[in-house]
Amino acid sequence: MNEQEAIAYLDSFYPRKSERSLSRIRELMAALGNPQDGLRFIHVAGTNGKGSTCAMLENILRQAGYRTGLFTSPHLRSYRERIRVGGQCIPPEELGELTERVRPFAEALPQCPHTFELITAVALCWFARQGCDLVVLEVGLGGEFDATNVISVPECAV
Fold it and tell me: Is this model's pTM higher than 0.85 or not?
């Protein structure tokens, strides 16, 4: 799957009427081997300034010598900027390959996942694959059922 195919696939899962729960993302991550369990997180929530706060935190941590992951949403210019390691966007071929990896597990779920759940899964797989020391993780809409709550207790919550 190339970058454009991956983005089209990920974006095809906009929220439909479904129960509000973490069951879809939990099932999906379990099927993928729970790669998030081997990572450490700084979880950022709030109404305004999440993206800026995430960018500043990631930069500080990277400058301090940590191998950082950064997950933000939405993107400004490129879909790939939602997922970064060491300040670099996920390469197009990796976005395609990881989307292709997540696809059969997502399609096997009893309830159709949402786009944000899928991109969260792709991001967490990428961060684990890249061996990130710390991941700065921005919530989506926030709240109890936000897909980013699939992580265990973060090192820090902002």
Answer: yes
Q: How far apart are CA 28 and CA 30, in angstroms?
A: 5
User: Low-confidence residues of the chain, pLDDT below 50?
Assistant: none
- CA dist 24 and 8 (Å) reads 20
Structure tokens that stand for 138 in this block: 């921005």
pLDDT of residue 20: 79
Which helix (DSSP H) or strand (DSSP E) does residue 138 occupy? strand 134-138
List Cα–Cα distances, 35 to 78, 97, 127, 143, in angstroms: 25, 16, 8, 22
Nearest to 25 by CA among 94, 91, 116: 116
- In this predicted structure, what is the pLDDT of residue 19? 73
Query: Residue 18's pLDDT is what?
Result: 64
Q: Which residue has the tokens 């879809």?
A: 24
Which tokens belong to 38? 């081997």
Residue 12 and residue 7: Cα distance in Å, rounded? 8
Beta bridge partners of 42: 136, 156
